[in-house]
Amino acid sequence: MTRPAPAQRLDMTLADRLEQKEGWVYMTGMQALVRLPIQQRLRDAAAGLNTGGYISGYRGSPVGTYDMALWQAEAQLKAHNIHFQPGLNEDLAATATWGAQQVGLFPGARVDGVFSIWYGKAPGMDRSMDSLRHANLAGTNARGGTLLLVGDDHGAKSSTLACYSDLNFASLGAPLLAPAHAQDVLDMGLHGIAMSRYSGSLVGMKLVTDVVEGGGSVQVGPDSPAIVMPPATGPDTTIKPFTPIPEQERLLWEVKLRKSLDYARANGLNRVEGAADARIGIVAAGKAWQDLHQALAGLQYRNGRIGDLPVRLLKVGMVWPMDPLAIRDFARGLETILVIEEKRPLLEDQIRNALYGSDAAPRIVGKSFDGQALAAGPDSNAFPGYGEIDPGQITRVLVRVATETEPACGLSLPNAPAAPPALGRGAVRMPSFCAGCPHGRSTQVIDGSRALAGIGCHTMAMLRDPARTNSVSQMGGEGVMWLGQFPFTDEQHVFANMGDGTYFHSGLMAIRAAVAAKATITYKLLHNGFVSMTGGQPHDGDLSPLKMIAQLRAEGVARIALVTDEPEKYAGASLGAGATLHPRTEMETVQRDMRTVPGVTVILYDQPCATERRRLRKRGKWVDPDKRVFINPEVCEGCGDCSTVSACMAIEPLETEFGRKRKINQSSCNKDFSCVEGFCPSFVTLSGAAPRKAVRGAVAVDVSHLPAPVLPEVDGSWSVLVSGIGGAGVVTLGQTLAVAAHADGYFASNLDITGLAQKYGAVHSHIKFAASTDQMRATRIAVGEANALIGCDLIVAAGDEALSRLTPGKSLAVVDTTVVPTSDFARNPDWLLSGADQIERLTGILDGNARALDAQDLAERVMGDRLFANMLLLGAAWQQGGIPLSLAAIHRAIDLNGVSVAANRQAFDLGR
């Protein structure tokens, strides 16, 4: 496809994602999931159907923010008769979506049918299998249909285990689709609903981070994709008020799956490309398909050939069940089939079964060779059955398999980027509690005790003190491990951490079990008012500390202590028998008291999430205390007791001629004020104070004298890596760049690698753009592929992950010189890291192509807030020629973000 003129997209708006009827729209996979039900409703209306939509599920990475995206589109959803009801947990939500298929079976239906969408991460599907199995056997409505959106975290980046759901679908007997990018998310989602209507089966769609968090240019239209309904054959498989169980089973395995295969064939869900005369075939699906094309690009793949070697490719859209006819057609004439897939050999085993016994069957290589398991490794022809696969692995295995099949092909590994000097392992920025996070205090364990970890932000307590906080369970199982331990140990008591979101989801059952078992355990029930782990969503119902106390008392809890940062708000409230109120300064005393009480006790720690309070203050929806805390450096002795008490990341080192002191980072401080409770006279509290700054409107940043940047031609694709700290605007900057590229007429993609790192850890945003969709491959920037690095944090930018993406002579880096302490500083007052050493790591690779400036200091002095440093760095990178986008497109993207537009433009100019 040719690149449109930039003016064609400079009038784009964010509403285009849901409202533009035809053409190219920039959206993430998550935003495509929001458009999906609206698009389905529009198609139904055009077909004369009066349908409704029902969406329910439970949040969890990588579908952790789907509910928030749906809430933001509430008006559009309601206008199309689509009802979104978050589930209390995953299995109840699954049962509700099953119920939506029964509309029309009983009197009173106002619609012809309801299509339903369930969402959840892999562990949520695990706990929902009973409900889903019943629903799949029962069937779907021919004018409804059910789509299951399952989030898999193969690398356990934001999960307590590596998640893989494919085999669950095989167990259910439910087809599974695997989108490769945002376009596929929309198209396959529509196909999934249509397939469900036609076959009577639930249909799943596998979503991984690279797909659902990745964004791209998506083509939309009223008839896109074209959907073909095969002729109806065989018995009726739609849902009935009652079908005998044996008949349900027969219909599932004999009829529904056959119909699913018929639909996949009629709609070309499995696509073949490449050379007809090939002897080597390659099979992949979903993310692996994009990774394969990234690897092929490095091998100069063109028109079905790698050099002179012809190859044939099969993109599998429906990974289970695979179409045996499509497999046999694809395999005809091949000598070797290479199967690329993460985790279990689901595709490989199906291909082997389909070709077993056929004449001249090709050898199949994936995780095994001729049926014999292979040990995966750097010199192996196999892919591992664990972890994730990247384009580099694919390249190595592909070259070895190709040369074994065709020794004269002359294929060899592409030249690796020039090896950087021996730098040693870089510093690591681990996730940590945000500044002012209530978990920083509530999860501290007193001497002589230990705590069992739970699911939520507070899981990071294990990173801080793994000897005292460990043994994380599944969601809803918090503390229950102790039930199997205490009859056999002399240990008398443990604590167990549980978030309020988990309590509402399923955690109350764990407390009830502990009471029934007569265990002696203290639950730290952490009430912060939000589901902060997945984005700060509100609870899915009314949940207040007073209601929780009443409920816990009714369950038989022996004693309850309500600990809070605002005891005054409970003045006059009746806590009832066995419950007491305490300020948070008494937390240690309360813990010591509770561990002596036989039976189940609860410390209900009530303090709102610091990050959510900050966001609400910006919107004027939360009281902003008119005071700030400062540290007098002439009094501070650098002991670090303030960090010990508060565990707050806004406390930073201040190097002076008299040694190391402490300071408060006013840009990141969330006004928790725990730090003042340290044993120290150096703290000063000021009322009515604000950081000194220039009046932004009065600061003229004159760029008229600057020469226009020399912007290189985009030959193929252009890749920009933005690296920084979670929660500090890295994702926003990445999205701004991607939207600017789309506005400039390019086809763009972006991928945010966050996971648990969204909590003060290392975050990377991968942005790519090209003039042709043919040049858009994997959303993740490959080793040595980055054209530019914007280092919003020096430690992350000089870390191993970011440096591996750079190539001498090709890459440009613009980085902030500020050394922001890691979470180690809160525990070790003598923590030290040399900024010069970090810069040397960058210059050791890029030499003169590494630019460093004190962006945070400049932003704070001129703009009054360090948060403008990211936009300042973007301006510097653009002026240096690292971002080949027009100024008009960048300005448009800043405008569309809609936050401090004039100030962000000013910061961009300041960076130039």
Protein model, in words:
This protein has 912 residues and is α/β, with parallel strands linked by helices. The chain folds into five domains: 12-266, Thiamin diphosphate (ThDP)-binding fold, Pyr/PP domains (Rossmann fold, 3-Layer(aba) Sandwich), CATH 3.40.50.970; 271-409, Rossmann fold; 439-608, Thiamin diphosphate (ThDP)-binding fold, Pyr/PP domains (Rossmann fold), CATH 3.40.50.970; 616-696, Alpha-Beta Plaits, CATH 3.30.70; 710-911, Pyruvate-ferredoxin Oxidoreductase, domain 3. The chain has 31 helices and 35 strands. A hairpin with a 2-residue loop joins strand 11 and strand 12.
Give the structure's gist in a few sentences.
With 912 residues, the chain is α/β, with parallel strands linked by helices. Helix 12 packs across helix 15 (391-405).
Low-confidence stretches: 1-7
- Please give the count of helices: 31
Q: Biggest sheet, in brief?
A: 8 strands, mixed
| Overall pLDDT level | 90
- The CATH class of the largest domain, by name, is Alpha Beta
CATH architecture of the largest domain: 3-Layer(aba) Sandwich
Q: How big a fraction of the residues is strand?
A: 15-25%
Question: What do we call the CATH homologous superfamily of the largest domain?
Answer: Thiamin diphosphate (ThDP)-binding fold, Pyr/PP domains
Apparent shape: globular
Question: What is the helical fraction, as a range of percent?
Answer: 25-40%
List the helices and strands and how they pair.
Elements (H helix, E strand, L loop, with lengths): L15 H4 L3 E6 H18 L4 E7 L8 H7 L1 H6 L2 E3 L5 H11 L12 E9 H6 L1 H10 L7 E7 L13 H7 L3 E2 L4 H18 L3 E6 H4 L2 E6 L24 H22 L4 E4 L5 E5 L2 H12 L2 E2 L2 E2 L2 E7 L2 E3 L3 H8 L4 E5 L5 H10 L7 E3 L2 E2 L2 E2 L17 H15 L33 H4 L8 E2 L8 H4 L4 E2 L23 E6 H17 L4 E7 L17 H10 L4 E6 L14 E5 L3 H8 L5 E7 L3 H9 L8 E5 L9 H6 L4 E6 L2 E6 L18 E5 L29 E9 L4 H14 L3 E7 L8 E9 L17 E4 L2 H4 L2 H4 L8 E5 L7 H4 L7 H12 L3 E4 L1 H9 L5 H11 L7 H11 L3 H11 L1
Parallel strand pairs: 2-3, 2-4, 4-5, 5-7, 6-7, 10-13, 10-15, 15-16, 19-20, 19-21, 21-22, 22-25, 23-24, 23-25, 30-33, 33-34, 34-35
Antiparallel strand pairs: 1-8, 6-14, 8-31, 9-13, 11-12, 12-13, 17-18, 26-29, 27-28, 30-32, 31-32
